[in-house]
Amino acid sequence: MKNQVITFYRGFSLIELMIALAILVILASVAYPSYVQHIDRERRTEAQSILWIVASLQEEFYGDNYRYATPAELGADGANNIQNENNTYNVTSVYPNGNTTFQLTATPLNWIDNRCGVFTLFSNGTKWVSGNPDGDADDGDGDDFVGDVADQDDIATCWR
What residue ranges in 2-151 does DSSP mark as E strands? Predict the structure, then answer.
């Protein structure tokens, strides 16, 4: 009987590594857009939350003082800005009729929200967005969403 030498090769062949890399790239190309959409939805929810919080503080102040609070009375900085803790939105207050009504606006900071844009909440509970997520409202200038007019289904889509 002859002695046989058995040789074992360790590791992966280049083909096996390329196949694994191709699978990883395909999975990443599917997962990354979903991840980005999730983060954007989370940011929009955060904007809506801070708007409702500031609105409830305004209503509480109105109940005690028969007028809405100035931004300074709500703890805003000198520029009438209130920022959420993650600094993704800047909330500004406008008082179109003195202090008898208010308009709260949440503008994205350090990112662009092409889908919903700027969120606005009025003292009477009316909600508004500057974006146009379904693309059916267009101002005719050829851009996507910038300056386009939102309609009721856009507001319902963004204010979930």
Answer: 81-83, 89-94, 103-108, 119-122, 127-129
Give how many domains the chain has, as a whole number. 1
Structure-block tokens of residue 145: 């969403």
Q: Dig out the tokens for 156 from the structure.
A: 């319902």
Closest CA to 107 of 95, 96, 119, 115: 119
Confidence (pLDDT) at 27: 94
Please report whether residue 43 resides in a domain: yes
Domain that holds residue 113: 14-158
| pLDDT tens, residue by residue, 75-84 | 765 445 666 6
130 falls within a domain: yes
Q: What are phi and psi of 118, to 5 degrees?
A: -95, 135
What pLDDT does 18 receive?
Answer: 95
Q: In this predicted structure, what is the pLDDT of residue 132?
A: 66
Domain membership flag for residue 5: no
**80 Rama sector, left if φ>0, alpha if ψ -120 to 50, beta otherwise:** left
- Residue 131 sits at φ, ψ, to 5 deg, of -85, 175
Asked, for residue 140, whether it belongs to a domain, the answer is yes
